[in-house]
Write a structure and sequence with these properties.
The chain is mainly alpha-helical and 391 residues long. 65% of the residues lie in helices and 4% in strands. The protein is built from 13 helices and five strands.
């Protein structure tokens, strides 16, 4: 029994580390131990590792450490792609060895052997499609079309030249320092894909996220039905109630059924928990990017808008403070005195800063249907895009 509980503890710790690493910066975890674990995994661990390498190997060791870091984080490399293929391959292989011997079962038909293979195959195809597709690379040959397709809004985008590519950078584009190219409608650089996500391959990226959410959820439900079938076939509930005299209630049977599952099918339990957590994380990522697509906003633009709105709020505060200071000085100059105001009235009085709302004016948001159509059928793949150069 100790071994089973050790497996459960190992699983919970692994899930905590994964969730902390991927989601620890989310506002919901602010000020919690999940945020602290995320900080340690993303910053603290790196700092301690660098100090340890410097202490053991000296300056040469630090130089080698920085070389490896530059290759892994600053240059295109297939490390995370290999890790993805290893994860999905190992998960499917373990599922075959541990669970497929129970198919067909009481609740699961033989067709799921082939459906699972098809589902994994489609996921790998979407991964390869996203990884090796053109994200919308801007070159000297097509820059004029992209300049016409994406006008400047003069808020977060204004006319400027790319210092690396040496041509005007269209609105919504960004020069990726990792891939060393300008990408139209740049969203972000995805290390898992070893590719940028941009105008042309956002649709593949969204399909990848949704399909892998479905794949993990399908695997979780399938394993659940397999375990339910095993309980039925081995007559576990009947034995517990008839031979051991346990009441036929959830609270009485749950601990014993869980103990039997952990003892007989601990591999399936661990796989279920792993795929369930991954499916929830993928659902969160998909929902976030779906909301961006529906409003025709990119991840890169989200940060730009945050900076712009923060700057506008600070500017409004400065204007309000300046106006209040001028009014106070004018009153003092004229010998006037401001009537006293109770602290309670001053506390409840609406701040003048709240009268001027700072709003986001996204000119690229053309409505839900037009925004989605732009994702499915990018501007650069339309006939009007190529006619721009001739006009």
């Amino acid at each position: 029994m100790e071994v089973q509980w050790l497996l459960v503890a190992h699983l919970l710790i692994t899930l905590l580390v994964v969730v902390s690493f991927l989601c620890g910066q989310w506002p919901i975890f602010q000020g919690t131990f999940v945020e602290r674990i995320h900080y340690f995994l993303t910053f603290g661990l790196y700092d301690y590792s660098l100090r340890l390498v410097g202490f053991v190997f000296g300056s040469r060791g630090k130089d080698a450490f920085h070389t490896v870091e530059n290759y892994c984080c600053e240059r295109p490399n297939p490390i995370l792609q290999i890790i993805y293929l290893a994860i999905i391959g190992a998960t499917y292989y373990i599922s075959i060895n541990s669970s497929f011997k129970y198919i067909p079962g009481h609740y699961v038909g033989n067709i799921h052997k082939y459906m699972s293979l098809l589902a994994v195959g489609v996921g790998v195809i979407l991964f390869l499609l996203t990884s090796f597709s053109d994200p919308g690379t801007i070159t000297i040959k097509n820059v004029s079309q992209y300049l016409a397709a994406y006008p400047y809004d003069d808020i977060i985008y204004s006319e400027k030249q790319c210092s690396t590519c040496k041509f005007p950078r269209p609105a919504r584009a960004k020069h990726c320092s990792i891939c060393d190219r300008c990408v139209a409608r740049f969203d972000h650089h995805c290390g898992w894909m070893n590719n940028c996500i941009g105008e042309k391959n956002t649709r593949y990226f969204m399909a990848f996220l949704f399909w892998h959410f479905f794949l993990c959820l399908y695997g979780t439900v399938l394993l659940g039905f397999i375990l339910a079938g095993r309980l039925k076939e081995r007559r576990v509930i009947y034995i517990l109630t008839e031979y051991y005299g346990l009441p036929n209630s959830f609270s009485s049977l749950f601990p014993h059924v869980t103990q039997w599952l952990l003892a007989s099918h601990n591999t399936e339990i661990i796989l279920m928990m792993f795929m369930l957590v991954v499916s929830l994380l993928l659902l969160g990522f998909f929902g976030y990017h779906a909301q961006l697509c529906l409003t025709n906003t990119t991840t890169n633009e989200t940060f730009k808008w945050q900076d712009y709105l923060s700057w506008r709020r600070k500017l409004n505060e400065a204007k309000a403070s300046s106006a209040a200071l001028k009014a106070s000085m004018s009153m003092m100059k004229n010998g006037e005195s401001k009537p006293t105001e109770s602290k309670w009235r001053a506390f409840c009085r609406r701040s003048p800063l709240q009268n001027e709302a700072v709003v986001k004016n996204n000119m690229y948001d053309k409505g839900v249907f037009s925004n989605m159509y732009e994702i499915v059928h990018p501007l650069s793949e339309r006939s009007s895009f190529y006619r721009t150069k001739m006009s």
